[in-house]
Design goal:
Blueprint lengths: L2 E7 L7 E6 L9 E9 L2 H8 L8 E2 L4 E8 L17 E4 L9 H5 L31 E4 L5 E3 L6 H21 L1 H10 L15 E5 L3 H12 L4 E6 L2 H9 L4 E4 L6 H11 L5 E6 L5 H9 E9 L13 H7 L2 E4 L5 H13 L10 E5 L4 H9 L5 E4 L5
Parallel strand pairs: 9-10, 9-12, 10-11, 12-13, 13-14, 15-16
Antiparallel strand pairs: 1-2, 1-4, 3-5, 3-7, 3-16, 5-6, 6-8
The structure holds zinc ion (2 copies).
The site of one zinc ion has 4 residues, from loops.
């Protein structure tokens, strides 16, 4: 049986090791084997590599992946949107699958909090068959019940990977603050109908952070009808990118270094009121203190950037009371958000150049360099292309 090369995280903060695994002798019913075309390096991979999230090693990293179907298990005939699947189709998939049966999945409709979820490229060890459960590899095994999405022919692989998990994270987060829309979407799930993008119609929105999640949140807010969008962050090249993605105004945190001055700037730019919605996409605790002050009275605050536990912030609860704030949190994403994302990318490739954010390509053998360019903020988006020499 031929083997498949993979780059493996065996020890935290040590170089990834190139290893060869045997391909599965057969694909179980409902599963699939995919030949990896491109795998994105996400900021979370850097946190995982450093050992900042509790995972069990060894793991093949990579939870943003596009590939072509090599083998289909018995009974797997259609993708999540009910399109037929065949060998050779270009597909992507959600990195996690919820059980659909537990209290959070079934009763409370919060499947992203399902205790059974284990993510490809994060929570699946590679020392037992089928081994190939992460993106940094020549092949990727998809277990039964994986949410697979066929990629439309006119949608570039670079756009899907460039948007990566940041876009689905942002779509889910923005949906949460548009609570009515979220209820409708949950009701539509399973009807085969493609859910729509959440709406921030005529809202004034502040996005804190110009990293991948911030840029994606900006794109979602723009497409969702926001009237005015202010992006706060840095460095300069990230703010320039925010401009290319349609930010009306940017505030450079190096130029306006004092948080209170940034709050004043937002108030001035919003007629003295503050923003209808502030989306935190930074991941630094202090941003939350600052961002709540940027909301107008009765506004909404979404904590989206704290995917790792970065510690505590000083929050004055009186601000929440006095402003009658609505405070939201959002974790990961559901399958429907990937469906929304693919439709979104297909419809908006000119307005939101996610494909152009893929700036650095690496072979599998150079996976360590790919990870380091992401860790050191040298790239907009680094990717691994296993066939790249
Ligand atoms: Zn990610
Ligand atoms: Zn569950």
């Amino acid at each position: 049986m031929p083997g498949a090369k993979a780059s493996v995280l065996e020890r935290f903060a040590a170089p990834l090791r190139l290893r060869e695994f045997s391909l599965p002798s057969s694909v179980e019913p409902g599963g699939a084997l995919v030949r990896t075309e491109m795998a994105g390096i996400c900021g979370t991979d850097v946190h995982l590599w450093k050992g900042q999230l509790p995972i069990s090693l060894p793991v093949i990293l990579g939870h943003e992946t596009v590939g072509r179907i090599e083998q289909l298990g018995a009974g797997l005939e259609r993708d999540w949107t009910d399109q037929p699947l065949k060998i050779g189709d270009r597909v992507t998939w959600t990195s996690t699958t919820s059980c659909g049966e537990c209290y959070y999945c079934k009763v409370k409709r919060q499947p992203t909090r399902c205790p059974e979820r284990r993510a490809y490229g994060i929570g699946q060890r590679c020392d037992h068959p089928p081994h190939l459960l992460g993106g940094y590899a020549e092949f990727h095994y998809l277990r039964p019940r994986t949410n697979i999405f066929k990629i439309p022919d006119d949608l570039a692989t670079e756009a899907v990977i460039g948007a990566g998990c940041a876009l689905i994270t942002a779509i889910h987060g923005v949906e949460r603050i548009c609570i009515e829309r979220a209820r409708e979407a949950a009701a539509e799930e399973g009807t085969g109908k493609m859910p729509a993008l959440p709406s921030l119609w005529r809202d004034c929105v502040v996005v804190q952070g110009a990293g991948p999640v911030g840029i994606a949140a900006l794109a979602v807010a723009r497409r969702g009808g926001a009237r005015q969008i202010i992006v706060i962050g840095g460095p300069k090249h990230r703010l320039e990118m925010a401009g290319r993605f349609g930010a009306d105004l940017t505030i450079d945190i190096d130029e306006i270094a004092k948080p209170s001055a940034r709050v004043d700037a937002v108030r001035q730019l919003t007629g003295g009121y503050g923003a209808d919605a502030v989306l935190e996409c930074v991941g630094l605790p202090g941003a939350v203190t600052e961002g709540m002050e940027m909301c107008r009275d009765g506004g909404k605050y979404l904590v989206l950037g704290h995917y790792c536990d970065a510690g505590t912030a000083q929050v004055n609860p009186h601000v929440i009371t006095r402003k009658q704030l609505q405070v939201f949190g959002s974790w990961s994403s559901e399958p429907r958000h990937l469906g929304v994302a693919l439709g979104f990318l297909q419809a908006t490739s000119k307005a939101f150049p996610f494909a152009e954010t893929v700036t650095h390509r690496f072979s599998l053998e150079r996976a360590n360099e790919a990870l380091m360019t992401t860790a050191n903020w040298q790239s907009a988006k680094s990717v691994i292309v296993p066939s790249f020499k």
